[in-house]
Design brief:
The complex is a heterodimer of chains A (about 110) and B (about 120). Chain A has about 110 residues and is an all-beta fold. Chain A contains no helices and eleven strands. By secondary structure, chain B is mostly beta strands. The chains are: A mainly beta (about 110), B mainly beta (about 120).
């Protein structure tokens, strides 16, 4: 079963614009990670944010985490056509297990 | 290539047949995960190993599914008596354990089609 949901399910923007996608989850977490998946391929890790962190940056990516609202957002600035992919959040819980639970994903399309 | 590899990349089988998939993780990674992904959905956790020990199995993993990691290196996932509902992409990932959570490195997946 999925831990939570990404919002929106699909997003279409012009190259150069910013893209924001959100992830909501249900249980207490130790960390939250964002992954990208190009069509029909494996997932690529983008960024990890721990539960005691509120914001993290990596290149054109900015991730925020609000544990009180059980939500996270991923911002991609100055988007490029190559950013076209599905983006998933994955949560690691505090319950002593090291399994990851993925969300339902946001399909991003960046138009050139 | 020192990434995670999976074999085969595609498998077409008839309902009722058994299939086995293999995953070779990154060599120094001691955690290995199996996921199933259907079209338009996120990966669903199936099971994970730390070294050779299978530490957790999802309720999705019915008794027709079995996974092994006999020497703590490669892993196999077997599905017995396949059903059409088993058609999906099966993803393997590995990570390095420690006191902290670490990123997972995913393989390209095995796409299973059950006719």
């Amino acid at each position: 079963s999925q831990q939570g949901e990404e919002d929106p399910q699909a997003l279409s923007i012009q190259e150069g614009e910013n893209a924001t996608m959100n992830c909501s989850y249900k249980t207490s977490i130790n960390n939250l990670q964002w992954y990208r998946q190009n069509s029909g391929r494996g997932l690529v890790h983008l960024i990890l944010i721990r539960s005691n962190e509120r914001e993290k940056h990596s290149g054109r990516l900015r991730v925020t985490l609000d544990t009180s609202k059980k939500s996270s957002s991923l911002l991609i600035t100055a988007s490029r056509a190559a950013d076209t992919a599905s983006y998933f959040c994955a949560t690691g819980s505090t319950s002593g297990t090291y399994k990851y639970i993925f969300g339902t994903g946001t399909r991003l399309k960046v138009l050139a | 290539d020192t990434g995670v590899s999976q074999d085969p990349r595609h498998k077409i089988t008839k309902r009722g047949q058994n299939v086995t998939f293999r995953c070779d993780p990154i060599s120094e990674h001691n955690r290995l995960y199996w996921y199933r992904q259907t079209l338009g959905q996120g990966p669903e956790f199936l099971t994970y190993f730390q070294n050779e020990a299978q530490l957790e199995k999802s309720r999705l993993l019915s008794d027709r599914f079995s996974a092994e990691r006999p020497k703590g290196s490669f892993s196999t996932l077997e599905i017995q008596r396949t059903e059409q509902g088993d058609s999906a992409m099966y993803l393997c990932a590995s990570s390095l354990s420690g006191r902290a959570w670490n990123e997972q490195f995913f393989g390209p997946g095995t796409r299973l089609t059950v006719l």
